[in-house]
């Protein structure tokens, strides 16, 4: 449909999505998973029932989803809405004035920590959100917070060895691995702040992860010791690692970009990430997207929107008339807009079933079961059939690009 009408739906979802009430005198973070859409998790009884408000009794509020939402709202010119999100994030970044603490991965609606991991990538996205807002508003204090986040990540995670780059998780004993995706995030973040040295460190690592034999970027290193250089032979190929590299322009070799994207835009049977899901609980539409990883099952729509953007960026800059993936990315874009029209949001997954159904599926239940418990990431969690903040905000960013 008309892209302005679609953008208005994204605006409405992000500004009306429930908030935590943790920041003194203000609204808190945006809830990650929203209401269940019509049809819920399906008609199969205990394995289909979804909580109506959010995925578990403690609703998640992820800084990553909030960062993507704030970037979208800043780009869209909705600065007061973006400011509310950033001020809620500041509440967690500065438990005491002047003492920056990097963010945990998720909080409850009352502000308690629900996921204790401190991830490099999530914090880099938060830093980028402050930088986008500072650029749009001209307010220097937000750019100072952005720089403080970058400095804290670099100090705690950098590796000075032949691979370079930054480790994935803090505190140190929790995550000595280096993730390609986190280093793509760090590259993009450092580039926004003009920090060429940090940019070069991240780019060095991402380039070193290119696998000539399989024509994809490896997901990262093992994490047995500080700055482990060992490579996992069993780690799945991740969608964001391939497509965000196109968006962020990290690895300068166009042939690699083309090869990895072309491979990922094949069906699962051909070694790619494409997945077509039928929205059995909606209008039955067949919707094309990408899986979260090569071990995942079902389309994950946040990654689908970023894939459309990444391939579009490649085609605009490097294709020289020989574009890649356009039938697939056109269908993926249409699938995202179909959900916006149908649900006034983009979902984490259109596949029914709940967490219990997903757990059963991990233990050999039939793959043809129509309500498998959402879209399995292949990494030990799943996205269920809920309106999803990150997927909706990424779809908004996709619409702003073209």
Jot down its keywords:
mainly alpha; 402 residues; Glycosyltransferase; two-stranded antiparallel ribbon; single chain; 10 strands; 13 helices
Point out poorly predicted stretches.
Answer: none
Strand order of the largest sheet: 1-2
- Annotation, overall tally of beta strands: 10
* CATH class term: Mainly Alpha
Order of helices and strands: HHHEEEHHEHHEEHHEEHHHEEH
* Mean pLDDT across all amino acids: 93
User: Helix- and strand-based class?
Assistant: mainly alpha
Radius of gyration: 20 Å
Level-2 CATH architecture: Alpha/alpha barrel
Shape: globular
Strand content range? 5-15%
CATH topology: Glycosyltransferase
Give the distance, in angstroms, between the N- and C-terminal Cα atoms: 13 Å
Tally of separate domains: 1
Largest sheet: 2 strands, antiparallel
Total of DSSP H or I helical runs spanning 4+ residues: 13
Structure description:
The protein is mainly alpha-helical and 402 residues long. Helices cover 45% and strands 7% of the residues. The strands form 5 sheets. It has a two-stranded antiparallel ribbon. Helix 2 runs antiparallel to helix 3 (79-93) and helix 6 (180-193) packs antiparallel against helix 7 (196-208). The two termini are 13 Å apart. InterPro entries: 6-hairpin_glycosidase_sf. This is Cellulase.
Task: Give me the secondary-structure topology.
Elements: H1 3-16, H2 63-75, H3 79-93, E1 106-107, E2 113-115, E3 118-119, H4 120-137, H5 140-157, E4 169-170, H6 180-193, H7 196-208, E5 210-211, E6 216-217, H8 239-248, H9 254-264, E7 274-278, E8 286-290, H10 301-317, H11 326-343, H12 355-362, E9 375-376, E10 382-383, H13 389-401
Antiparallel strand pairs: 1-2, 3-4, 5-6, 7-8, 9-10
Helix pairs in contact: 1-13, 2-3, 2-4, 2-13, 3-4, 4-5, 4-6, 6-7, 6-8, 8-9, 8-10, 10-11, 10-13
């Amino acid at each position: 449909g008309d892209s302005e009408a679609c953008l208005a739906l994204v605006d409405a979802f992000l500004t009306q999505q429930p908030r935590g009430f943790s920041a003194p005198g203000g609204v808190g973070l945006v809830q990650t998973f929203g209401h269940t859409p019509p049809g819920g998790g399906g008609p199969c009884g205990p394995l289909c029932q979804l909580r109506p408000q959010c995925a578990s009794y403690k609703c998640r509020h992820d800084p990553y989803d909030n960062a993507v939402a704030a970037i979208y709202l800043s780009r869209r010119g909705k600065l007061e809405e973006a400011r509310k999100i950033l001020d809620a994030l500041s509440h967690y970044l500065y438990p005491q004035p002047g003492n920056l603490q990097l963010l945990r991965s998720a909080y409850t609606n009352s502000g308690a920590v629900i996921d204790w991991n401190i991830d490099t990538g999530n914090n880099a996205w938060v830093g980028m959100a402050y930088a986008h807002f500072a650029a749009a508003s001209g307010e220097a204090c937000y750019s100072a917070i952005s720089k403080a986040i970058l400095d804290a990540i670099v100090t705690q995670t950098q590796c000075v060895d032949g691979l370079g780059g930054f480790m994935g998780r803090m505190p140190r004993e929790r995550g000595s691995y280096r993730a390609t995706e986190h280093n793509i995030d760090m590259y993009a973040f450092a580039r926004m702040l003009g920090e060429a040295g940090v940019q070069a460190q991240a780019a060095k690592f991402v380039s070193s992860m290119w696998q000539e034999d399989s024509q994809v970027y490896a997901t990262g290193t093992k994490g047995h010791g500080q700055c482990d250089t060992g490579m996992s032979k069993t780690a799945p190929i991740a969608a964001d690692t391939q497509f965000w590299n196109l968006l962020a322009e990290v690895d300068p070799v166009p042939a690699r970009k083309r090869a990895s994207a072309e491979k990922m835009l094949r069906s699962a049977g051909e070694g790619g990430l494409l997945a077509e899901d039928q929205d059995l609980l909606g209008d039955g539409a067949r919707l094309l997207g990408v899986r979260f990883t090569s071990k995942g099952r079902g389309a994950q729509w946040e990654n689908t929107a970023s894939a459309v953007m990444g391939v579009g960026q490649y085609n605009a800059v490097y294709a020289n008339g020989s574009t890649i993936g356009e039938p697939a990315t056109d269908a993926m874009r249409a699938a995202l807009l179909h959900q916006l029209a149908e649900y006034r949001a983009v979902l984490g997954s259109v596949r029914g079933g709940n967490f219990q159904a997903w757990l059963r599926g991990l233990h050999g239940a039939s793959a043809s079961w129509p309500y498998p418990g959402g879209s399995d990431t292949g990494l030990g969690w799943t996205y269920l059939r809920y309106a999803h903040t990150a997927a909706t905000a990424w779809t908004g960013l996709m619409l702003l690009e073209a």
